[in-house]
Specification:
mainly alpha; 2 strands; 315 residues; globular; Serine Threonine Protein Phosphatase 5, Tetratricopeptide repeat; two-stranded parallel ribbon
C-alpha cells in the first residue's frame, strides 16, 4: 500500500487521492465516464478491484470510497448498484455519493434511504466499519439525536477502534457548531488519549485545535486578533511538539490520508509562528495539497503553494 513519498522538485498540486496512485488511475477513468454520462463494464470492474484491494485496511477503503464518490457524481454510483445489487462496495459508494450530494448541494436526498443502504452494506460484510461510518455521517447531516449516534458509535468502535473518518465525523457532530458543545468535544478527545500515536485518527486533537482557531478567526475584529493565543496554550504546544517531531519521519504515518494530516500540521505550525518546523513538514508533503485547512483564508492551492515554495527554498 502506498505511503506518502517525498519527491524532490515536485510542483504543488491538489490530488484527491493523495499518494494512492492506484486510486488516482481509477478516479480519472470514473471522471471520464462522468463526462460522457455512462458507466461501462471495465470501469465497474476497476472500481471493484481498487476497493477490494484495500482488504481489511478500513481506513484506506473509506478514503477510496470518498474519493470515488466525489468523482462519480450521483448517477454513476446508482448505475453500478443497479448492475450489481449484491456488491457491498457498490451499495456503499451509492450511499456515500448521496451523502456528498446532500452536503454539497442541499439536494433533496432521502437520507433515510441512505441509512437503509448502510444497513444493507453492513449485512453484506459484517466486519466492515465503513457502513456504520457513513451511517454516522448521515445522522450528523440530519442532526439526529445523540442517542442514535451512540449506538452507531459502538458498532464502529467494535470493528475499528481508531477509524479516522468515523472520529472526524464524530468530532463534527459533537462540535458547538452542530449538535454538541465544547465540553462534548473535550469528552471525545479524552476518550482517545490511549490511541497509538501513529493510528489513523492520530490527528483528531490537532483537527479540533485548528477548527477552534478558524472559529475564532471567522468573526474578524478583536476576536480574530486573539486567535493566535490558542497556539500558546500548554495543550496545543504539546500536540504541536509531538506531531512536529514524529509525523514528518519516513514511515511514521502510514495510513491512507497521512498527507492530509501533514497538510493540517503544516498549517497549524504556520499559525503558531513556527516557520522552521512548518517548512520541514511542508517538504514532507512532496507538494501534495489538500483543500482544507488552506481554504479558510484563500484559494487552497495558492495558499499552500506560497508556503511550500518558501519551504523548498529554505531547504
Amino acid at each position: 500500500m502506498p505511503v506518502f513519498k517525498r519527491r524532490k522538485g515536485s510542483h504543488p498540486r491538489l490530488l484527491p487521492e493523495l499518494d494512492d496512485t492506484a486510486l488516482g488511475q481509477v478516479r480519472r477513468r470514473v471522471e471520464a465516464c462522468w463526462d460522457r454520462g455512462s458507466l461501462d463494464t471495465p470501469v465497474m470492474a476497476l472500481m471493484t478491484d481498487v476497493l477490494d484491494d484495500a482488504g481489511e485496511d478500513w481506513d484506506r477503503k473509506a478514503h477510496r470510497l470518498r474519493v470515488l464518490a466525489g468523482a462519480a457524481g450521483r448517477t454513476l454510483p446508482r448505475i453500478w448498484r443497479e448492475h450489481h445489487p449484491g456488491n457491498q462496495s457498490a451499495v456503499l459508494l451509492h450511499a456515500w455519493s448521496d451523502l456528498l450530494q446532500a452536503e454539497q448541494e442541499g439536494a433533496p436526498i432521502d437520507l433515510g434511504a441512505t441509512r437503509e443502504s448502510c444497513r444493507l452494506a453492513a449485512e453484506l460484510l459484517p466486519a466492515d466499519p465503513t457502513p456504520w461510518t457513513v451511517y454516522l455521517a448521515a445522522l450528523r447531516l440530519e442532526r439526529r439525536p445523540s442517542a442514535e449516534l451512540s449506538a452507531v458509535w459502538r458498532e464502529i468502535k467494535a470493528r475499528d477502534p481508531w477509524n479516522r473518518e468515523a472520529h472526524l465525523q464524530a468530532l463534527g457532530y459533537l462540535s458547538p457548531d452542530e449538535c454538541g458543545s465544547s465540553s462534548h468535544v473535550l469528552d471525545l478527545l479524552d476518550s482517545v488519549r490511549v490511541m497509538p500515536p501513529d493510528a489513523p485518527a492520530a490527528g483528531l486533537e490537532l483537527t479540533a485545535l485548528v477548527r477552534n482557531h478558524q472559529r475564532a478567526m471567522a468573526p474578524g475584529g478583536v476576536t480574530a486578533l486573539g486567535a493566535g493565543e490558542l497556539w500558546r496554550r500548554p495543550d496545543a504546544v504539546a500536540v504541536l511538539d509531538h506531531a512536529a517531531h514524529h509525523w514528518p519521519g519516513p514511515g511514521f504515518l502510514h495510513h491512507a490520508q497521512a498527507l492530509a494530516d501533514l497538510n493540517l500540521l503544516a498549517y497549524a505550525l504556520i499559525k503558531a509562528t513556527r516557520p522552521g518546523d512548518a517548512a520541514t513538514v511542508l517538504r514532507a508533503t512532496g507538494g501534495v495539497a489538500t483543500p482544507w485547512p488552506w481554504n479558510a483564508e484563500d484559494e487552497p492551492l495558492a495558499s499552500f503553494s506560497r508556503h511550500y515554495t518558501r519551504a523548498r527554498e529554505s531547504g
